[in-house]
């Protein structure tokens, strides 16, 4: 679950990014907090923007920390720790990129499966209308072999549509699980 600590709704319905700056970094950054409009009224869009701004301000805080530490002498333990943190950050960013690529791929598969399902349903409905017409006009006894083949085709199409619907549901569940599993906490 994504926690939006820095998301603040305004009375006009527009969401704001509001993040306090740690006390020891205020002299370097020159302000007490960051607060600005995200210029959106939609909460989901605001959550995405807050995530981006959180990463951006994390970078600024990190730069301020580096500037503060640059003024202090470093020992080998601090240097090793900073290197390890940098490596972990790079690894996390690579994981996030890979995860987003996987989510995008599953999303594309889902859209493709939904498109196929809709096309099958449209073809099935057209064939069903024709067969209802044949039955309504009393031509069932005189059904030609081609129409009998179409009846079988409609049955096959119904089975394929059911399978496609199951695939769409499975892909939706997989996409939801991936989003829940890999979404970084803000």
Provide a brief overview of the structure.
This protein has 186 residues and is mainly alpha-helical. It is built from four helices and three strands; from the N terminus they run ββαβααα. A hairpin with a 5-residue loop joins β1 and β2.
Task: Walk me through the structure.
The protein has four helices and three strands. It has 186 residues and is mainly alpha-helical. The chain has a domain at 105-186. Strands 1-2-3 form a three-stranded antiparallel sheet, with helices on one face. Helix 3 (76-136) packs antiparallel against helix 4.
Helix count, per DSSP?
4
Q: What strand order characterises the main sheet?
A: 1-2-3
Cα gyration radius (Å): 29 Å
Total count of strands: 3
How would you describe the oligomerization state of the chains in this entry? Answer: single chain
Biggest β-sheet strands, sense, barrel = 3 strands, antiparallel
Percentage beta strand = 5-15%
End-to-end C-alpha gap? 9 Å
Please mark out the parts with pLDDT under 50 across 5 or more consecutive residues, or reply none. none
Mean pLDDT: 81
Helix content: over 70%
Shape: elongated
Q: From N to C, what is the helix and strand string?
A: EEHEHHH
